[in-house]
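Our example pasted here:


***
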Amino acid sequence: MNSDAKRDVWIEAGLAEMARHGIDGVRVEVLAKNLGVTKGGFYRRFRDRAALLEGILGTWSAGRIASIEKQTSLDGATARDRLRAVVQLYAERMNTAGMAVELAIRQWARSDEAAAAAVASVDAARLKNVAHLYRATGMAPEQADAQAFLFYCFIFGQSLLFLERGPRKRTQLIAKAAEKLVDDEPS
């Protein structure tokens, strides 16, 4: 395994620990123990914990931005089909680990400028790319921006709600809500 790959292992371990215990849980000793290695391996790849946290933010934000760019790329699909696919991706497949990391980074961003900047850049990319899809359906720019905002409020909000409906009822509710976000004609 090359040095970059070993560095990435530490970053992935940091993200996993963050998902479980928040930013305070990302400690060199804990990560070394979880990886079954010594702390010396950490210090060959990072100068300190702050460098690891910087790597975690960079990896997370670059990954989220690349993901939304890929998910919203038309590649021969219609804008509405692509919007439906994004809803389906986020709403029908609960990625609890991914959501835990998202929430942990957002919590961290409440008290850290670098984390806040990373979250802001990811949010801006998400909104820009989805608004682009809405504009491609014929919506005016301001309407598309507002619809993209509602879209992400729905995407993340629905994942936080524990509905007392069975999985089938939840899927039906999400599908109906998605129709409002995707199928309504521009006004």
